[in-house]
Design brief:
Pfam families: HD_5. InterPro entries: HD/PDEase_dom, HD_domain, HD_GYP_dom, HDIG_dom. Helices cover about 40% and strands about 15% of the residues. It is an alpha+beta fold. It has a five-stranded antiparallel beta sheet with strand order 10-9-8-7-11. A four-stranded antiparallel beta sheet has the order 1-2-6-3, with no helix packed on it.
Length: about 400
């Protein structure tokens, strides 16, 4: 809880990362709330871990509420690295946060993957081809490690013939995020493997690869050759790391043994390949294609959970679920008292009780001063899922 006993109006540094900040300075100071901010009646006004920048247009209303409660300052963390406890209490919104992977790194990564594929398509097989992709993988890893809650800073497809390259970047970013939560030592391999997982598609005829509609059975059989072809290409350009080769060959294997090319099952499938399988499927479901509309994140997570234990490693599926919660940011929910709000963070381990920005009062009136309600600290609960607000969660 914030200690309101301090006096004085200036910013004071309390520890190397935590500052005592007057509320009137929050709009320019930014940072992350370091302790729960509690009202006089015990309600959570701002949960620990709240990113000031994520309050957006609501910040002025929050400041007014703090002033009305007699709170004249907050303890704020200012650091690229924050405690896991703080992060878990307020997951950055994957659809509204400005703290995304650097756009130039994203563009360069996609361009280098595209260049590699085009070279392989024209039979230019040299070890030098992989160097720039490996360098971009390292830069992408740095972004993921610096902001471990930046979940899916994904580029959406604008040209159908670029889908494979953008999808490779997205899969790498998602896989790196998941592995960072499971075994941080393997993040770089996960990212590089994600960038290269569809390498074999460089040898798939473009009329099949970019077909604007469902594939025939014979066309799908051609597509199913890409893991083996990709592994062969990777070896030819000098990739010999067994974990990377496993990702390329095994990312379409399935937990129950119904995948391809080898019909492996369970833990006989490489760990990183099992992670990339989840990342690959998640991005494919949430991407727009000429023959299908994207589904939103909640539905994609639900689909992966449905296939957990058959298609996907249950442990990896759970990491994805914990990252989003049952109600990912942007979910519109009705609470047990009849009020309506928008989920702005997951519930951490308690998937049923996220942090909600209440916008509609129990009597149906619009809340003039929307408040953040941490359901883990409230008697209220979610009784109904009403939909998804889209790209703004605040």
């Amino acid at each position: 809880m914030v200690n309101n006993g301090f006096q004085g109006r200036g910013v004071t540094r309390l520890t190397p990362d935590i500052y005592r900040v007057p509320i009137e300075e929050l709009t320019t100071f930014g940072g992350t709330v370091a302790d729960d901010v509690i009202s006089r009646d015990g309600a959570v006004i701002l949960p620990k871990g709240t990113k000031i920048v994520l309050l957006g247009d609501s910040l002025l209303q929050v400041l007014k509420r703090l002033e009305d409660e007699g709170i004249d300052h907050l303890h704020v963390m200012r650091s690229d690295e924050v405690t896991s406890d703080a992060l878990d209490s307020f997951v950055e919104s994957v659809v509204s946060s400005n703290m995304i992977i650097d756009s130039q790194i994203a563009r360069t990564s996609i361009r280098e993957v595209k260049r590699l594929f085009e070279s392989l398509r024209h039979n230019k097989l040299t070890p030098e081809l992989v160097g720039p992709v490996m360098e971009m993988a390292r830069e992408l890893v740095e972004q993921i490690l610096r902001r471990p809650k930046v979940l899916f800073s994904v580029a959406r497809v604008r040209q159908w013939d670029e889908y494979t390259f953008i999808h490779s970047f997205n899969t790498a970013a998602i896989a790196g995020f998941l592995v960072n939560r499971m075994d941080p030592r393997l993040v770089e391999k996960a990212v590089l493997g994600g960038l290269l997982h569809d390498l074999g598609k460089a040898k798939i005829p473009l009329e099949i690869l970019n077909k604007p509609g469902p594939l025939t059975d014979s066309e799908f059989q051609v597509i199913k050759t890409h893991p083996v072809v990709g592994e062969e290409l990777a070896v030819k350009v000098g990739i010999d790391d067994p974990d990377i080769l496993s990702i390329i060959r095994e990312h379409h294997e399935r937990w129950s043994g119904i995948g391809y090319p080898d019909g492996k099952s369970g833990e006989s499938i490489g760990f990183l390949a099992r992670v990339v399988a989840v990342a690959d499927s998640f991005d494919a479901m949430t991407a727009e294609r000429s023959y299908k509309a994207p589904i939103h994140y909640r539905s994609a997570v639900k689909n992966i959970l449905t296939d957990s234990g058959t298609h996907f490693d249950p442990k990896v599926s759970r990491v994805l679920l914990l990252a989003f919660g049952l109600y990912p940011p942007g979910s519109v929910v009705e609470l047990s008292d009849g009020s309506v709000g928008v989920v702005v963070s997951s519930g951490g381990e308690d998937l049923m009780r996220p942090v909600v920005l209440v916008k509609v009062a129990p009597d149906g009136s619009i809340v003039r001063e929307p408040k953040l309600l941490d359901l883990k600290r409230s008697r209220e609960g979610i009784c109904k899922y009403l939909g998804w607000e889209g790209k703004r969660a605040l």
